[in-house]
UniProtKB/TrEMBL annotation:
Pfam families: ABC_tran. Belongs to the ABC transporter superfamily. Gene3D superfamilies: P-loop containing nucleotide triphosphate hydrolases (3.40.50.300). SUPFAM superfamilies: P-loop containing nucleoside triphosphate hydrolases (SSF52540). Keywords: ATP-binding, Lyase, Nucleotide-binding. SMART domains: AAA. Residues 4-231 form the ABC transporter domain. It comes from Mangrovibacter phragmitis. InterPro entries: AAA+_ATPase (IPR003593), ABC_transporter-like_ATP-bd (IPR003439), ABC_transporter-like_CS (IPR017871), CP_lyase_PhnL (IPR012701), P-loop_NTPase (IPR027417). This is Phosphonate C-P lyase system protein PhnL. GO terms for molecular function: ATP binding; ATP hydrolysis activity; lyase activity. PANTHER family: ALPHA-D-RIBOSE 1-METHYLPHOSPHONATE 5-TRIPHOSPHATE SYNTHASE SUBUNIT PHNL (PTHR42798:SF7), LIPOPROTEIN-RELEASING SYSTEM ATP-BINDING PROTEIN LOLD (PTHR42798).
Length: 233
């Protein structure tokens, strides 16, 4: 079953504060991801991997093209969707793990992790149990769970972020380098979460710079177009 169907996506950044310089980044990107499949975006630095991933989450509006997401069996085009539809998509269908945790003062790690599941209306004790299980699997020390992650180390914050991204078991998962800068043990824990998500039928798109991780999780690579960025006034 196709969960994500991207067709003819184009995106040019226009730098208004730099004489309107134009930076074409995505040129006619098409991509299909089925349930249970992990597609890894592959290309040199600056080839537009993060831009594509952010566009697939609706953070950037493309200049043209469509991004159809299977949302409860209905196709919704993220490019033309209303704000309300985008929020519903993100709540129920589209999960996202960014590289960095957005830290909110005074909100504990446990709360941060539980949030996506609470938003779906799950009972609080169920959410809390799942959050505890994930934090333990990701080796976040228990003494930190009730503290706000602002003072956590980079790796600890990253693992809180990963737990938050996986707790809702989203049907479509977008992963922006979730294993970057993790040690071997934690990297293996994240790879195991990705493999489990794939087996339960999640459609995954990710960026993984580590070759070993990439080879382990990828069903196939999506090679970014070697688009030579032209800057013109
Ligand atoms: N918000 C933005 N505004 C303007 N230009 C941007 C923006 N985001 C990215 N770019 C430009 O788009 C190009 C692609 O960047 P992107 O971060 O998508 O590449 P990448 O393939 O993810 O690179 P890396 O592997 O180094 O993380 C770069 O030339 C970058 O300067």
């Amino acid at each position: 079953m196709t969960m994500l169907n991207v067709e003819g996506l184009c995106k040019t950044f226009v730098l208004h504060n730099q004489q309107g310089a134009r930076l074409p980044v995505l040129n006619q990107v098409s991509l299909q991801v089925n349930a249970g499949e992990c597609v890894v975006l592959h290309g040199h630095s600056g080839s537009g991997k993060s831009t594509l991933l952010r566009t697939l989450y609706g953070n950037y509006l493309p200049d043209s093209g469509s991004i159809n997401v299977n949302h409860h069996g209905e196709q919704i085009d993220l490019v033309t969707a209303s704000a309300r539809q985008i929020l519903a998509l993100r709540r129920d269908t589209l999960g996202w793990v960014s590289q960095f945790l957005r830290v909110i003062p005074r909100i504990s790690a446990l709360e941060v992790v539980m949030q996506p599941l609470l938003e779906r209306g799950e009972a609080r004790d169920v959410c809390e149990d799942k959050a505890r299980e994930l934090l333990a699997r990701l080796n976040v020390p228990q003494r930190l769970w009730s503290l706000a992650p602002a003072t956590f180390s980079g790796g600890e914050q990253q693992r809180v972020n990963i737990a938050r991204g996986f707790i809702a078991r989203s049907p479509v998962l977008l992963l922006d380098e979730p294993t970057a800068s993790l040690d071997n043990k934690n990297c293996a824990a994240v790879v195991a979460l990705i493999e489990e998500a794939r087996s339960r039928g999640a459609a995954i798109v990710g960026i993984f710079h580590d070759r070993e991780v990439r080879e382990r999780v990828a069903n196939r690579l999506h090679i970014m177009n070697p688009l030579v960025a032209e800057t013109e006034a």
